[in-house]
Amino acid sequence: MISFRNKTILYIKTLILSLFFVYNGTAQNFNAEVEPSININENVQDLIEIVGIARNLTNTNYTLKYKLSIIQNDINNNSSKNSQSGFFTLKPYETKNLSKSVINGNSSLIVLLIIYNENEEIIGTARKEVNGDENEEKIKESYKKKNEGIVLKGLVTENTKTKSGKDFYDYFYQNYSLSGNQTSQIINIDEIISYGRTTRLVVKVNDDIIYQFFAKPKLEYLKEQAEIAFRELNRYLQYLENRNEYKTQY
User: Fold this and answer.
1) Which terminus of the chain, N or C, has fewer Cβ atoms within 10 Å?
2) What is the pLDDT of residues 159-207, one digit of tens each?
3) Is residue 61 part of a domain?
4) pTM for this model (two decimals)
5) Same-domain status, 29 and 128
């Protein structure tokens, strides 16, 4: 069974997203209507205050959802995560503080703020890193501003309902993240109730189903299914690559 630390590492790799997302060959503009930002403030008590902020750039009222994730790495390379989420509203051109956390400053941090619309679609993202050092702390901003395309690479969404589904997701993502061959395509893992208590796990690339099977609680079975699903993913991505090359030639 995957340890808590390994699951934390998988979670971290999920959050470390590249900053360009291409859908059907066109850059998706994030942060164009609602712009998230992250403020990181240090104080004399060796603590760091982290505040997630959202700013409405339009004259429209919004009902939205946020998720603020903080991943820490201490000097012994032990990882921990803390996530806060909730719903909120924004009036036209309003700026609102969403969440505030105060944590120990003796560690390296990755902070990610994601804004979702009412359909659970990502419309904005901000990310900051704090690299803990004995002599210096360097803060990097890597969020895009208005009208800049943001690309999420290596994104695997999870919509599982049981422990078996979550275990399969962990095994699949471990194979995927360690392959070093992440795609700009969005991979979705959904768990669907079939008959009675039986559930079916479906792996999709965007809306195309590439693999599905009926869930069982045995870990070895789920691990094997994750390996098969990963092979099917690679086969499908190769098919997309070959198709794009064919279109380029003709």
Assistant:
1) C
2) 888 999 999 999 998 888 777 677 778 888 999 987 777 899 999 987 8
3) yes
4) 0.47
5) yes
